[in-house]
Amino acid sequence: MKKILQDLSKEEIAALVASLGERTFRADQIFLGLMQGKKISELPIPSALRASLLETYEEEPVKIVETLVSREDGTKKFLFALADGNLVEGVFMRNNYGNTQCVSTQVGCRMGCKFCASTLGGRVRDMTAGEILSQVLTVNRAEGGTVKDRAVTNLVLMGSGEPFDNYENVVRFLHNVTAEGGIRIGARNISLSTCGLVPEMRRFASEGIGLNLTVSLHATCDEERARTMPIANKYKISDILDACAYYFEKTGRRYIFEYTLISGENADEAHALALAKLLKGRPCHVNLIRLNEVKERSLKAAAERDARRFLEVLTQQGISATLRRSMGSDIAGACGQLRFSRIFPDGKIP
Ligand code: SAH
Fold it and tell me: Whose CA is nearest to atom 18 of ligand 1?
């Protein structure tokens, strides 16, 4: 595979352009063109420079090969082909406060959560910073956005993959997507979700990126958590809570817990009370969501009524919480339904 030009920051593109003996303004043209979602062959630069870039860099690191539109809520699911033939999925949702894109950070995932489709085939590979960014640039362009007037205003790193299992690439992506002069999506409009990799959560607190840190909790004690999340055998809930407190101390940002309601597993009133006890007094918010069923898995969603009761108990206990409605479930675009990729070794997408 060739290198990915979108991995580079504006400064790195300037250095590259200088090393090719080109004038400085070419760097601005290249950077702006990439931010507009252009392929290398579409960049407004002399053809010799385009040709020399194409010797080293991928023409189009991420290509939309399929778009599905939800008839229920207009949510779009995109199938992206990477240059090596791997495929990842992403989702675009229009809301009244802006438009949110859900991006993938790895091809597949190795965390093994029992409720999630992304991990069924394991982890195939990490995505590079530029591949992650190109999902945003490509969708922004496809949805009629520009660099100044963006179609994508909010990002959630909640597609396939565990962002903190691909730490360096994800942090590089975050610096580039928030950078001045680029597409510049503000950190406050970005949510990163982790299954709770404690050392990386702590490390991230010092990166100077004040985004919304979201942690997939899904249980109130380690034994129960380990039934659906293998990572619970490695990191304790108490250590996750300490890492969250540290994040708050360093960034001043409150954090969010994801809690997926699974019938017969974690969704009765006793669980709600235990969760409230665990989180009482913490500067956090709880996002409840009913399980989106995955056909390879036997787990069932909690009933709507039980979900509402769970929310009621949390609220009565003074915990800030919301019950999210699922979007895009008719196109398997809802949380936990994004798939691992198929690989086409010859790089040709059928
Ligand atoms: N690996 C990261 C990013 C995934 S984000 C993480 O674990 O947080 C996707 C969110 O959807 C996570 O909170 C995840 O636990 C949740 N999820 C996974 N499968 C789900 C399902 N079938 N129904 C509802 N939520 C699910």
Answer: 336
